[in-house]
Amino acid sequence: MTRFVFKSLMIAGAFLFFGGHLPLPEGLPRGDAAAALRMSLADPALIELLDEQVVPDFAVAAAEKQIAIFAHHIIEGVETGRR
């Protein structure tokens, strides 16, 4: 799930940042950003890059553990009335 969200945000950010700043590939009408995005996402080099694991599994597991501890602490505080 984390990889999907990260990839989606990366693609959306790149599209919003670069859309309109880069020349469109030949054969595409000017201003057809959706077609340019579909064509760019089909690039095998981009797909390979997005499939790379950015964060090691042990780091993800450690972060999940820390979040669970923090959430438990918050819930316990709410239940006991601590501030």
In short:
This protein is mainly α. It has helices at 2-18, 33-41, 44-50, 57-80. It starts with a helix and ends with a helix.
- Overall strand count: 0
- The proportion of strand residues reads under 5%
Largest sheet: none
| Residues in helices, as a percent range | 55-70%
Radius of gyration, CA atoms, in whole angstroms: 20 Å
Which secondary-structure class do the elements indicate?
Answer: mainly alpha
- How would you describe the shape? elongated
Contiguous helical run count = 4
Task: Return the average pLDDT rounded to an integer.
Answer: 76
What does this structure look like?
- By secondary structure, this protein is mostly helical.
- The protein has 4 helices and no strands.
- The chain starts with a helix and ends with a helix.
- 1% of the residues are buried.
Please supply descriptive tags for the structure shown above.
83 residues, mainly alpha, 69% helix
Structural topology:
Blueprint: H1 2-18, H2 33-41, H3 44-50, H4 57-80
